[in-house]
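ok trying this again, last paste got cut off
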Amino acid sequence: MHGPVLSGWLLVALCAATGAYCLVRARGCAGEARRTAGGEALMGFGMAVMAVPATVVVFPHWTWTAYAVVFGAAAFAALWAARRGGHHLHHLVGSLAMVYMALAMAPGAGHGGHTAAGTPLLTGVLLGYHVMYVLRSGVRLVPVPSAAGTPGGASADPLPGLAPACRLVMGLAMVAMLITL
C-alpha cells in the first residue's frame, strides 16, 4: 500500500493478528460458523500481505493477479453462500473490494484510476460502504443496559468472543487501505 511505512506495518500486524484469531476460531467451530471464520481469516491474512509498505517490499507482478483470482473465488463462494442469508453479502463486498485493490495495485494500473481530479466512483462507493459497516459494527459493540440496569444484549455470555471486534478491525483496515489506494 501507499502511505507512511509505520502505519503500513501497524496495519500488517493488526490484520495478521485478526487473521490468526479467526483461524483459531475456525478450528473451534463447525459448519457455517467455520466457513465464516475461515473466510474472515483469509481476508485478514490477505489484507496483511496487501498492507505491506510498497517502499519496503516489491512483490512480483503476478502477485496481484493471484490476489484477484483468490479473492474472486472467495467472492464467488460468498455469492453462492449468500442465498442462505447471513454475513455472506458483506464477505462478497469485501472480496470484491480486495479484487479491485489487487487490480489497482498491479503494475501499470495507474493506482486504480486515481488522478489529481479525484477518486474513482467505485473507490468512493466501497469506501462509503465500509465506513457505514464500521459505524454499524462499532455501535453493536456498545453494551446495552437491560431493564434491570445490568449490561444485557443478545448473549448471556459475559465474554461473547472477539469475532465482532475482529470484524470491526477488518472494516477499519479496509477503510484505511481504500483511502491510501
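PB: full thing came through this time. The longest strand covers residues 144-145.
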